Structures are given as C-alpha cells and as structure tokens.
Amino acid sequence: MRIIKVKNYEEMSKKAAEIVAAQVILKPECVLGLATGSTPIGMYDRLVERYEQEGLDFSEVRTVNLDEYVGLSGENDQSYRFFMNQHLFHRVNIAMDHTMVPDGLAADAEKACTEYEEKMDALGGVDLQVLGLGPNGHIGFNEPGDHFEKSTHRVDLTDSTIQANKRFFASEDDVPKQAYTMGIGSIMKARKIIVLVSGAGKADALAKMLHGKITPKVPATILQLHSDVTVIADEDAFSAV
Ligand code: F6R
Fold it and tell me: How far apart are CA 231 and CA 1, in angstroms?
C-alpha cells in the first residue's frame, strides 16, 4: 500500500482530487468507482473547481457507485443517487446515462445485483475506485462478518453503521436498515484504489486496515492484498497507527 499522510481534511481532499483528475486526463473514457458519505465531499468540490476553472472534462467518463440504501428512490434527498447528483454529477459535464448507482427500489433484489455486476463488467471494469472507511472497518457497505462477500448484494446494516449514519437523517428510525453494495470481490477487481480517511473516529479502523490481520471481521483489511492501493489519511486518522 502507498500511504500519503496529510495534515487535515482539506489536504486529503485536494490530494484525492489530484489523483482522480489525473486519471480522467490520462484516460478520458475511464470508469470511476465512487463513494458517498462525508469523506469524499471535499474531493468532489475540488473536482468541480477543476471542471469550472480548468475545463477538466467528464464528458466521456463513466461512473459506478459503491452502494445505495434499500427502499430509497433517487429523488429521496437521503439516497446516494441524490447525493451524487448534488455533489458531482449535476455540477460537471458528465452524461447522466454514464452514471450508475444501485437502484434502491429494485423489485427483484437478486436480479438487480446480478445486473449491476454485469454492467460493471460490460464497462470493462473500474479503473480507479474511491473508498471511504467505516469506523467499524467497512468498505462500501460490506459490514464485519464471517466471510468476504464476493459480488454486489443486499446487506443488513449493522447497528454501528446505523448509529454512524443517523446524523444524516431526521431520526434513527428513518435510517434504512438494509443497503445494496458492491461486494469485496467487485471492489478488489478495480485496477487502482484510493482510500480516503479523515478524523480520529477512524483511527482504530485505519490502524487495523494497514497493519491488522486480514479478516472479514474488519473488511478493509482485505485491501492489503490489492496491488495498487493508495491511502490518503490525515493526522487525526493516524493517531492510533
Ligand atoms: C459510502 C460508503 C461507505 C462510507 C463509510 C464512511 O458510499 O461506501 O463505506 O465510505 O461509511 O462514511 P463517512 O465518509 O460518512 O465517514
């Protein structure tokens, strides 16, 4: 793993945006794997700046998102589709039909998951996957468990994830209890991965991801086996390493 230690959230966001922008410039028709949550918001803001100020061109870029809550439509302002539209897609020149987020309202979950994998394969796989890190070591919504899930699937969210994400909802009861997520296998297929980590709340998970035993109990530890991972983490996140 390549490790880039930065001072704070702003520096992490800038560095991450530089890597994504370089990918887009080097391969304009690249496939980006994208994440939601608090962590990548600053990175998306920097990418929008580069689009506005330097003409960073997203017109040929394709995107696939890691996950979506079960039961939320793309119009729901808590859905990850809404998040992506708001923070990136509606602010740059990407074609909406080049963007993919799992459908939270899919009638047939199994079919939807199989099709999501097929669509990713049809795009030729992900060139650069952006990941955040859950305080419990999850990546995407691959929660701690007794085995690594291979492909896109529907998952029960753990109480710790529901607690961590309730800040985005009016009340804890409003947090969906299930999500669709790319599997660990889908994530590991990406040619390059960057992991963004900020804040003391992630310190334990970061230490385990970097130096812990590889175990599905801390899903991010699997990244130790990928050949091209760059971790960009700030000083607070490094406090337990
Ligand atoms: C989001 C995702 C999650 C988050 C993680 C960290 O698409 O896949 O794994 O990256 O829960 O969330 P934040 O950034 O809100 O701390």
Answer: 7
Residue 147 among the catalytic residues = no
Q: Residue 241 has what pLDDT?
A: 87
Q: Whole-model pTM above 0.85?
A: yes
pLDDT digits (tens, 9 = 90+) for 66-94: 999 999 999 999 999 999 999 999 999 99
> Which residue's CA is minimally distant from atom 4 of ligand 1?
132
- Told to judge if 67 belongs to the known catalytic residues of this protein, a careful annotator would answer yes
H-assigned helices in the chain: 9-26, 41-54, 80-87, 109-122, 159-165, 184-188, 203-211
Residue nearest to atom 1 of ligand 1 (CA): 36
Secondary structure of 164-212 in HEC code, one letter for each residue: HHHHHCCCHHHCCCEEEECCHHHHHCCCEEEEEECCHHHHHHHHHHHHC
Which residue in 65, 136, 142, 165 is the catalytic one?
Answer: 136
Closest protein CA for atom 10 of ligand 1: 132
Calpha distance 81→19 (Å, rounded): 23
159-192 pLDDT, tens digit per residue, is: 999 999 999 999 999 999 999 999 999 999 999 9
